[in-house]
Structures are given as structure tokens and as C-alpha cells.
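Hypothesis: this fold can be encoded by more than one sequence.
Test: take the C-alpha cells below, design a sequence, compare later.
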């Protein structure tokens, strides 16, 4: 993910999960949000207007709720869904975020949210239409352990100043923290 965002040459970068739980045309809604002026636009499975075509298994659903609670330990904002696999951002903002991001695994989404907060970027959540897939690579037990470990890493790195960015790195409309 990091290499792709850092190599992007367009004005906007967008990405989705490999299991294709979201129809590709949903990316248009995110792109519109970026064009309206948001730095980052993310899908949210918890948005009041979200439609679930195929529900996730009970274990994944409960796991997702636990993840949302745990991310509250790291993030200041109360986001409905950090793990939704549909995100878009201005390319310059993406380069700022991913040049400082350290997490390569399941918790990279939470780190993106943490850096959006740290760099005082704007973020907007939009509803999605989700069709949960059996092709998912999520293993609740394994990924829960890794997520908790990475949440503590993100929190520690933030406290140690390891996410500090030079003010010259900030895109013109972003505000240096």
C-alpha cells in the first residue's frame, strides 16, 4: 500500500480491500468528497445510511465492534469504522501520511487515522454498500492480537515523537501540527 501511494502521480489516490467487499463504482463517492475539499474520505460500514447486502459472520461482527472500542485508546476522534476497506485521499496528503507511517499490517488503517489527527487533516466518513466476502483474508484471532500490539506501537510512537513531520512537508491546504 505504502509503495503505491508514494509512487502515485495523480491528484487523488484511492484503495479498497482485496476481497472486493465494495463495488468499484463506490470509489466515485469518495473521489467526489476529495474534490469537495476533504483531505481524506473513508467509507464507514457503521454509517446510518450504509447498506449491507451480505452480512459478516457473527465472530467478525463482534470482532469489528471490539476493534472500534480499542481504537478509541489511540485515536482522539470517535470514528465509526477505521477498518472499512474503502479510502481515498489527496495524493499529496497520501504522500505525507505514508512517508511517516510505519505499520504494514492489519492496523495500518488505524495509523492512517492517527496521522490524519496528528497532522490536523480533514476527514469525512461516507456510507457504503458492503457485500461481505468469504474471500476475506481476515483471521479474527490472529489479526486481533496483531492489532492490539500495533495499537500500542502507534500510541507509543506518537508519544515519542516518531511521527513528527517537517512543516515543509505539509501540502498547501494542510495545517502543520
Amino acid at each position: 500500500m505504502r509503495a503505491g501511494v508514494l509512487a502515485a502521480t495523480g491528484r487523488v489516490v484511492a484503495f479498497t480491500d482485496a476481497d472486493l467487499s465494495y463495488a468499484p463504482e463506490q470509489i466515485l463517492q469518495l473521489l467526489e468528497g476529495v474534490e469537495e475539499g476533504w483531505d481524506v474520505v473513508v467509507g464507514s460500514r457503521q454509517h446510518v445510511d450504509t447498506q449491507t447486502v451480505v452480512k459478516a459472520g457473527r465472530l467478525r461482527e463482534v470482532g469489528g465492534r471490539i476493534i472500534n472500542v480499542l481504537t478509541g485508546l489511540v485515536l482522539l476522534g470517535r470514528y465509526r469504522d477505521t477498518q472499512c476497506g474503502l479510502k481515498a485521499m489527496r495524493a499529496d496528503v497520501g504522500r505525507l501520511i505514508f512517508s511517516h507511517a510505519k505499520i504494514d499490517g492489519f492496523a495500518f488503517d488505524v495509523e492512517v487515522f492517527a496521522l490524519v489527527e496528528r497532522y490536523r487533516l480533514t476527514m469525512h466518513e461516507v456510507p457504503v454498500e458492503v457485500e461481505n466476502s468469504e474471500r476475506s483474508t481476515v483471521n479474527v484471532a490472529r489479526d486481533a492480537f496483531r492489532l492490539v500490539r500495533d495499537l500500542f506501537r502507534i500510541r507509543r510512537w506518537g508519544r515519542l515523537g516518531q511521527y513528527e513531520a517537517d512543516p515543509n512537508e505539509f501540502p498547501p491546504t494542510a495545517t502543520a501540527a
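The beta strands are 12-16, 40-44, 51-54, 86-90, 123-127, 129-131. Residues 140-159 form the longest helix (20 residues).
Hypothesis status: open.
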